[in-house]
Specification:
Helices cover about 10% and strands about 35% of the residues. It is mainly β and about 200 residues long. The protein folds into 2 domains: about 90 residues; about 80 residues, 3-Layer(bab) Sandwich (Phage tail protein beta-alpha-beta fold). The strands form 4 sheets. Strands 1, 2, 3, 4, 5, 6, 7 and 8 form an 8-stranded antiparallel β-sheet that branches. A 3-stranded mixed β-sheet has the order 10-13-12, with helices on one face. A hairpin with a 2-residue loop joins strand 5 and strand 6. The longest helix is centred in the middle third of the chain and has 12 residues. The protein is elongated. It starts with a strand and ends with a strand.
Length: about 200
């Protein structure tokens, strides 16, 4: 399997990458109410200056086409005198770790589907169309320094599921009981073999 990673518009291929791994947990412990971050860790030969919080997009070559494996943002880095760099990056769930101070134009209690839309906008992403939320469920004003992620977790509990960020960088609620949302699968080759990046399967 061939891989590449685009970091701030600079492409790194198999020639540059020494190792890479994606971890995409759906929960910290088996249960509901989680909003876990996916993590990308790669070791590679640096070719250009990489800015703080640089966007990183890994790809896998599947059936002669490059398939996107996610969107990540650089969080930690270290570099050796040889120019070999190790970076750790997280997906857009990282953007949910900020206190939600709602705009004064918003009204509470707010239907959960509306609140998720507002949160996604604040995170700079979209809600996956497969996400199903009950419009009869509401949230109160997020007092006590609740973060966007705290509110997402509360909504996940109400719907018996967990939040994840898809490889297209969209917010998706995955129910724990029953099946995944329609058309949710793991990325596979034309022979049905699972596509992995560092051993982890890719949810699409």
């Amino acid at each position: 399997m061939r891989y590449k990673v685009v970091i701030d518009k600079t492409e790194y291929t198999d020639v540059d990458i020494q190792s890479g791994n994606i971890e995409r947990p759906l929960f910290d412990e088996l249960g509901i109410g989680n909003a876990c971050m996916a993590m990308l860790k790669i070791v590679f030969k640096q070719k250009s200056v990489i800015p703080r919080m640089a966007k990183m997009i890994p790809y896998a070559l599947v059936n002669n086409q490059w398939e996107q494996l996610g969107v990540f943002y650089l969080d930690e880095r270290s570099i050796k005198p040889t120019g070999i760099m190790t970076v750790v990056a997280y997906d857009s769930m990282l953007k949910a770790d900020k206190i939600w101070v709602p705009d004064q134009s918003l009204e509470f209690p707010m239907p959960m589907p509306d609140s998720v839309g507002v949160i996604a906008d604040l995170m700079g992403i979209q809600v996956d169309s497969r996400t199903v939320l009950n419009p009869a469920y509401t949230i109160d004003y997020p007092a006590n320094d609740y973060t966007l992620r705290d509110v997402l977790k509360f909504i996940a509990v109400a719907h018996g599921g967990n939040w994840t960020i898809t490889r297209e960088d969209k917010l998706l609620l995955v129910p724990l009981v029953g099946s995944m949302p329609p058309e949710t699968n793991h990325l596979v080759t034309e022979d049905g073999d699972a596509i992995t990046f560092g051993g982890d399967r890719i949810l699409v």
